[in-house]
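Subject: for your reference before the review

Hello V.,

The reviewers asked for a structural picture of the protein, and I figured it would be easier to keep everything in one thread rather than splitting it across files. Below is the amino acid sequence we used in the manuscript, unchanged from the supplementary table.
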Amino acid sequence: MLRARRWLGRNALRIYGAIAFAYLFTPIAYITVFSFNDGGRSNLVWRGFTLKNWANPCGAPEVCSAVGNSLKIGLTATVIATVLGTMVAFALGRHRFRGRTATNLVLFLPMATPEVVLAASLLTLFLQMAPIGIRLGVTTIVIAHVMFCLSFVVVTVKARIAGLDPRLEQAAADLYATEWQTFRRITLPLVAPGIAGGALLAFSLSFDDFIITNFVSGNVNTFPKFVYVSAQRGIPAQAYVIGAFMFFLALTIVLVADIVRRRRAPK
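And here is what came back from the structure prediction:
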């Protein structure tokens, strides 16, 4: 009994980690396995292994058009949110001005507010703007996504800016570099990992958002909306294919970035 307790004490953290990873990755393993299922329209019961779902991911009606809309909206919202968020992060991280504390508070509000509250508020705003030509669709989705993605980009880039060593920029100035040369050759390369991280976070948040998108999208169909509607009659295997592909693509990007970082790190 004493040996068992000692063994459990030495391995408790490993056991907890294994349980946590199993809890996190079980749904991912499920969609990956069932992406190879020959289940037809109702992909709820395992009926046999097949590769035809991966060979034809657009086999289900409207699935690829929904993914295309999500990609287009996600990329647009990511570019806008990254550019604006980076500028806001530099302003908050490098300058002192009146209203700085209030700006920080306002930026955190979209992160702390429940999505259904944001969605209802945005829907009301867009409906009131209908007389001036604002209609529910791609434009309103992009505006909504930029609003909540902006906060995450600002927080990510601001954290990177706070960790910069100011002596590097001072050394560049001592070597007669202009402000633009210092920013382009010193500051921007150092902040680039934070900008890239904020952009990836913004894209993932935009691509998989359902609640706000469902309120402000009108007749535009996105991938999360497609999955939600399809769930009532059985999600097609092609949706599992796209979900598994997006996961492994994101995993590959993270692994490649980590490998590059390790190779560039000083030994």
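For the response letter, the relevant points are probably these. The radius of gyration is 23 Å. The chain is about 75% helix and 0% strand.

Happy to draft the paragraph if you're swamped.

O.
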